[in-house]
Amino acid sequence: MQAIGGPAPVASPDVPEFQTSPGTRDILPPDSARVRQLVSIFAEIVGRAGYGEIVPPMFEDLGVFQRLGEATDVVTKEMYDFVDKGGRHIALRPEQTASVVRAFVQHSPLTPWKVWYYGPNFRYEKPQTGRYRQFDQVGIEVLGVDDPNLDVEVIALAARFYEALGLRQVRLSLNSLGNPDERASYVTALQRYFEANLDALTPESRQTLLKNPLRVLDSKRAEDADVVGAAPQIGSFYSDETAAHFESVCAGLRALDVEFTVTAHLVRGLDYYRRTTFEFAAEALDAAQNAVGGGGRYDGLAEDLGGSATPGIGFALGVDRTILACDAEGVFGAPSLAPSAFVVDTTGGHEALLITAALQRAGLPADRAYENRSMKSQMKAAGRSGAAFAIIIGSDELAAGTVTVRPLAGHAGEDRTQLVVERGDLIDTLRKLIEP
Ligand code: AMP
Questions:
Q1: Residue 117: is it exposed, middle or buried by C-beta count within 10 angstroms (0-12/13-18/19+)?
Q2: Pair 426, 355: CB distance under 8 Å
Q3: Minimum CA distance residue for ligand 1 atom 18
Q4: Nearest to 344 by CA among 315, 380, 313
Q5: Residues with CB under 6 A from ligand 1
């Protein structure tokens, strides 16, 4: 069959006809176990702070995401949108903040509403290491509170999460983008400044300037560095109130020993941010792809989505990139998927069926060999599985109502003595051997 709108896949003996589409990946064991563990660490850290999980749908009416801002690449260039069979214009979510705020407006929960999420997002980006078209994020959002202490809590939770994974080289940059009026005055000043220095800007940045002068500050091109470096800073546009809010956030982070750098030119890819904005960069990764997470206040978003004016703040952390950062720092390795016991049955396989089921029911991870292979082949499979013990049942054991418990390479203990135990005692014996 030919792919719709694309070239016919070329089948060859070495290359399967179907493979993951560009920018998507299969996450296989043991990496998938790592992702699961990462998410449970996250859930535990934010759960302790009173956040409950929200699972929004993966697609929404396109309009929900359009509210993220007309000058946002994620919205204008990268959205996976389509008209469904009912004629609705739908988009796969490019991020989850808009969905969470839409859910807040739809369900009117009591405030403060503190939620966390995990799941995939979709952006039509140029795929490369650390940049995918389907990627996972974990994140939190809080609606209904305007208090700098909350900004501190939110940022500190992200920092604690990275710490819990064992990451030591994640740097936090912090800025305040001011309230909408201050931000607007700043954008006008930036526009004037860049227009006066057009010749010093790259053509790409000149294009960006037409759409959003703030994003010119994001340019990573060396040719733009001088003009961007000398650009006006938002700090001179703060009201006393904004300055005090920002100072409280900084003081709170210091009080909690969260290290940060104030970065006056930090703007973020999504246009809805107001006041507190922050980003985490993993220094162990290449600069182009080292943003592992970020967030900020989005006090206007609930109103943009049809709700009443409600302050909001949150962050999203890239799961894929966080794991790349862990690899780069050599921390948070894949958990072992090895079973405690591997059952080797040379009597036909039925006993293995009974014994593995009994072990598993007792909470002991157990696997087995299939297809009535030879003892040698089954023992090889037991070794490959990484199991701590082989549970061997042959005709002698079957007749005597026993099993042989043989320590394997996966067994951490020193004692390598093989035991013969009554079948009824197997679970207790194994428990003692595994957790002495
Ligand atoms: P954003 O939602 O754009 O604020 O991104 C938050 C975090 O999600 C970033 O810091 C990245 O770690 C991650 N992220 C964003 N886009 C991608 C992508 N295309 N592929 C992988 N991770 C991404």
A1: buried
A2: yes
A3: 131
A4: 380
A5: 95, 123, 125, 130-132, 135, 137, 268-270, 291-294, 316, 318, 320-321
CA of 412 from ligand 1 middle (Å) equals: 40
Sign of CA dihedral 242, 244, 250, 255: negative
Domains of the chain, CATH where assigned: 31-178+238-329 (3.30.930.10), 341-434 (3.40.50.800)
Using the mean position of ligand 1's atoms as its centre, give its distance from the Cα of residue 290 in Å: 10
- Is 182 within 8 Å of 219 (Cβ atoms)? no
Q: From the centroid of its chain, how far is CA 18? A: 27
Looking at residue 235, the DSSP 8-state letter turns out to be G
Tell me the pLDDT tens digit for each residue of 374-420. 999 999 999 999 999 999 999 999 999 999 999 998 888 778 899 99
pTM beyond 0.90: the answer is: yes
Using alpha carbons, list the distances in angstroms from residue 2 to 8, 11, 14, 22, 265.
5, 12, 19, 17, 48
Q: How confident is the prediction for the chain on average, in pLDDT?
A: 93
